[in-house]
Each structure stands twice: as structure tokens, then as C-alpha cells.
Design a protein that fits this description.
single chain, 151 residues, Umud Fragment, subunit A, 2 domains, seven-stranded antiparallel beta sheet, 3 helices, 21% helix, disordered N terminus
Length: 151
């Protein structure tokens, strides 16, 4: 007879469903011991991310920190440029992720971790809004995706 355990499925861990699923396992103690680290990591990410929305990174602008295809936990409650950090932004309908540094005497510096892309300096948050820049939220965490084959 198959044994069912109350471990949370990956959709629940990522916030895609409201209810944790039930997963079938041969041995609940063996399953729990082998997967406890993953369950715990996802719980920490979900709680630490402010239960924000999950977005997929597109492009290589933030590589090697956040690579194309990685999952990001975006806290949409942080919809203002307050403090330094990594933000998900929208400009002309295009979503982008940038590191924002507030530098005295310079202004707000929007930069990519990938050195191939230049920095952009804007005087202040009001100037950024005038450019049409909208803050989607602050990126609180990311999960790297490793691909072993190419489709």
C-alpha cells in the first residue's frame, strides 16, 4: 500500500497554489530526511521574500548574480526607490532588473551586474518617474536554474 506524507509540493512552495499537495513516497522517514533541506529553503525564501510575486529573469543584464531563466521573488510592496538594492522596474512596457545605488552628489545609479551594459545615472526618484520608470518591486531573493540540455 502506498504511503502519503504531508510534504509540500513545489507549486505550493513557489506560491503558485494555496494548498500544499500530498506527495506519495515509499518511506516517509527516508523522503523527509532527503528533502528536508529543500522544503526548509523554500519556506525561508517564501517568508523572507515578503510573500511577493515570483518572476522569471529574462536577459543577461544581471549575470552572473541572476541569470536568464532564474526565478526571482519580487516584493511588490516596495514600489518606491528607497534605499540601495536590486529592483524590478518597468520602462516603456519592458521589464528589467537593475541594481540601484543612491550616491551622494551623483544621484541614483542604475546598473547591471554584467559589465557589458553601461550604468545610467538619474538625478533622483522624481526624475526617474518623469522618464516613465515604474518600480515593480524590490528583488528579495532568486533561485538559479541550471540547464543540462538545450531545447
Amino acid at each position: 500500500m502506498a504511503e502519503f506524507i504531508g510534504i509540500r509540493n513545489s507549486d505550493w512552495m513557489l506560491g503558485l497554489t494555496d494548498e500544499p499537495g500530498r506527495i506519495r513516497a515509499a518511506s516517509s522517514t527516508e523522503w523527509t530526511a532527503e528533502t528536508a533541506w529543500a522544503r526548509e529553503a523554500f519556506d525561508v525564501l517564501r517568508q523572507g521574500s515578503g510573500a511577493g510575486e515570483i518572476r522569471r529573469m529574462t536577459g543577461d543584464e544581471m549575470a552572473p548574480l541572476i541569470c536568464d531563466g532564474d526565478l526571482m521573488f519580487v516584493d511588490s510592496r516596495a514600489n518606491q526607490l528607497v534605499g540601495n538594492g536590486i529592483y524590478a522596474l518597468e520602462l516603456d512596457g519592458r521589464c528589467m532588473v537593475r541594481r540601484v545605488d543612491s550616491r551622494l552628489g551623483t544621484g541614483l545609479v542604475f546598473k547591471c551586474d554584467n559589465e557589458r551594459y553601461p550604468e545610467r545615472v538619474v538625478k533622483d526618484a522624481a526624475a526617474a518617474r518623469r522618464l516613465g520608470l515604474r518600480v515593480i518591486g524590490k528583488v528579495r531573493a532568486a533561485i538559479g536554474v541550471t540547464r543540462f540540455w538545450q531545447a
